[in-house]
Specification:
heterodimer; A: mainly alpha; 12 helices; B: alpha/beta; Rossmann fold; Alpha-Beta Plaits; six-stranded mixed beta sheet; four-stranded antiparallel beta sheet; 27% strand
Chain lengths: 288, 323
């Protein structure tokens, strides 16, 4: 594989997203959402103070709202990643653009990996920028600082990259709309299975716990989302969970008292590599 | 001796139960313009995709520029205009060419000069900074031809290069193809426009149902020159044509074949001397179109017989050139 050609394709992908104004639309929407989030949190804090709530309660409330916002943002990010990545190969094949390119000394693996790299930079960068803006806005209006915003944003970007890898790989064989739709459905199922798995832990339903764990291995997006929560969860809440009914807290899809295990993170990295590799193999076998 | 630009033996491609290409034997020499003809669905585009490695062959083998099919080194020296030419609509014409130059591995200095040369060649220099999304089909096709000619490739594969062009554009493309040949490129021209092929190509192959049914130079395929002449007023019994060749009639035309073009004035003089009035003289030979239609229509047994005969010549030719 030639690194030079991978970079040529990656920079072509970046240029495409900038030229087609997709990036600007995303950035514009993020700025609008960050302003709304800042305004909303500001209102919550003011109302809380008017009601005479103590600062600790207000902080806890804000931290939970921030996690909820992160959840919604992770969903938007996953959708954007799926719909950016699904057509990255598929639509080039559909329009025939790919024929002229692959007749050059460009290997299919270089095209797929180059596309992946370009999209990962965009999606990762977008996640980082929007995430930082949101955390900064909330910090500005409420004074709340999550314990490890970098960890949260890292996992958020990782989750989005996992989703885009899946969409890109599916798009090497499926039409772009199908690849995007299948990715979104799988992402939703992964989240759903994760929530069910948590509830199962609380209720000691072993079979369901197993399903949750298997799903998390097959599709690590929900496991990575736990990393986002962990980065945003104040130690105070974690401590509270130890005193109260810890089991019930674990059933909450917006709670995490520990980061995803290192082994799981390593598996997720390998998962991305395997899915990308499968996409390369599938594309190499495709008749154009 | 340099390797042939294209050489295939029994190249076969089957999609499920559909035989797209049965057994293709092709031989294209370096520096020649080779016409690749056939009706729709004959397997021409499949053959081109096999040559480029976009699709894998089910059977048979082939080499392009002396390398296996789809080989990366060979692709460095091939320019290709796909049948469905589409380029990134959000890039300018120059950026599309820069992309292709960098994919082809042209180095910085050559790249700049080459892009300027091909833009000028296809008449897009003035539109180089415009995005291709706003281009007409004809302009996109010109851009595709420019991309195919970047860096003086040893082999240029043009799949229907004039399908979107007006007559002026077609004439330009003929000149461009001739120039590419002068610069040493072999050109595989896949076209329906037989007149165009007839004017341009050194050799042609006609495919039907995934097989070459005729191949050779135009003289070999179309046979000798003939003369069509429209004469009235010849007295009964006068036979001024006989000394020049065998005579047949088509409506009001008399056809003399073979006819040495040098002797046409003598023939006309003989007709006039015999008392005939000459209305029209049309020197020429059987057109490629006539041959093509005969070969691809399975209407009559005679045409099949002729195809078989030509196939035999094609085989003889292929063996001859391969040796």
């Amino acid at each position: 594989m030639s690194l030079r050609l991978v970079l040529v394709i990656a920079s072509l992908t970046l240029r495409e997203i900038v030229r087609r104004r997709i990036l600007w639309v995303l950035v514009g929407l993020s700025v609008v959402s960050v302003i709304l989030v800042g305004w909303g949190v500001d209102r919550l804090v003011s109302i809380g103070r008017e009601e005479g709530l103590d600062e600790v309660r207000i902080r806890i409330g804000v931290s939970q709202v921030l996690i909820l916002i992160a959840f919604m943002f992770s969903f938007v990010l996953a959708m954007s990643a799926a719909f950016l990545a699904a057509p990255a190969i598929a639509s080039d094949v559909e329009t025939g653009t790919v024929h002229a390119m692959l007749a050059r000394p460009l290997q299919r693996a270089e095209l797929v990996v180059g596309r992946w790299l370009g999209l990962s930079v965009i999606v990762g960068g977008y996640a980082a920028l929007s995430g930082l803006l949101a955390v900064a806005a909330v910090g500005f209006v409420s004074g709340h600082q999550p314990p490890s915003p970098a960890v949260a944003i890292g996992f958020l970007a990782f989750q989005a990259i996992a989703v885009l890898t899946m969409a890109l790989a599916l798009g090497t064989r499926l039409p772009s709309i199908a690849a995007g739709a299948v990715t979104v459905v799988l992402f939703g199922l992964g989240w759903f299975a994760g929530v069910l798995g948590n509830i199962a832990v609380a209720f000691n339903a072993d079979a369901l716990v197993g399903v949750g764990n298997v799903t998390r291995v097959l599709l690590p997006t929900d496991g990575l989302w736990r990393g986002v929560i962990y980065g945003l969860e104040p130690p105070m809440v974690v401590l509270l969970s130890a005193t109260r009914s810890a089991e019930a807290m674990r059933a909450n899809p917006f709670f995490a008292d520990a980061p995803p295990p290192a082994l799981f993170v390593a598996w997720s990295v390998l998962w991305v590599a395997l899915v990308l590799g499968a996409g390369v193999l599938a594309f190499r076998r495709r008749e154009l | 001796m340099t390797a042939p630009a294209i050489e295939t033996h029994g190249l076969r491609k089957v999609f499920g139960t559909t035989v797209a290409l049965d057994a293709l034997d092709l031989h294209v020499e370096p520096g020649e313009v080779f016409g690749f003809l056939g009706p729709n669905g004959a397997g021409k585009t499949t053959a081109v995709k096999l040559l480029l490695g976009l699709t894998r062959a089910t059977g048979g083998d082939g080499r392009v520029l002396g390398r296996p099919l789809g080989d990366r080194e060979a692709r460095r020296r091939i320019g290709y205009l796909p049948e469905l030419f589409r380029y990134q609509p959000w890039l300018t014409a120059r950026e599309v060419l820069e992309l292709h130059a960098s994919l082809a591995g042209l180095d910085g200095h050559t790249r700049h000069d080459e892009i300027a040369r091909v833009l000028d060649l296809v008449g897009l220099a003035a539109r180089a900074q415009d995005r291709t999304g706003g281009f007409s089909k004809g302009m996109q096709q010109r851009l595709g031809i420019a991309a195919a000619l970047l860096g003086d490739p040893a082999l240029v594969i043009l799949d229907e290069p004039t399908s979107a062009l007006d007559p002026v554009g077609r004439d330009d493309v003929r000149a461009i193809i001739r120039e590419a040949r002068e610069r040493g490129s072999a050109v595989l021209l896949n076209s329906h426009l037989l007149g165009e092929v007839e004017r341009l190509c050194d050799r042609v192959a006609i495919v039907r149902k995934g097989r070459v049914v005729a191949a050779g130079t135009l003289t070999e395929l179309l046979g000798e020159q003939a003369l069509r002449i429209h004469v009235t007023g010849l007295p009964d019994g006068a036979a001024p044509f006989a000394p020049f060749g065998s005579v047949t009639t088509e409506d009001e035309w008399t056809v003399v074949r073979p006819m040495d073009p040098e002797r046409i004035p003598d023939l006309v003089a003989a007709v006039v001397a015999a008392g005939g009035r000459v209305h029209a003289v049309d020197p020429g030979r059987r057109s490629l179109e006539d041959l093509f239609l005969d070969l691809v229509r399975e209407a009559s047994a005679t045409s099949d017989a002729r195809a078989d005969a030509l196939e035999a010549t094609a085989h003889a030719d292929a063996t001859g050139t391969a040796g």
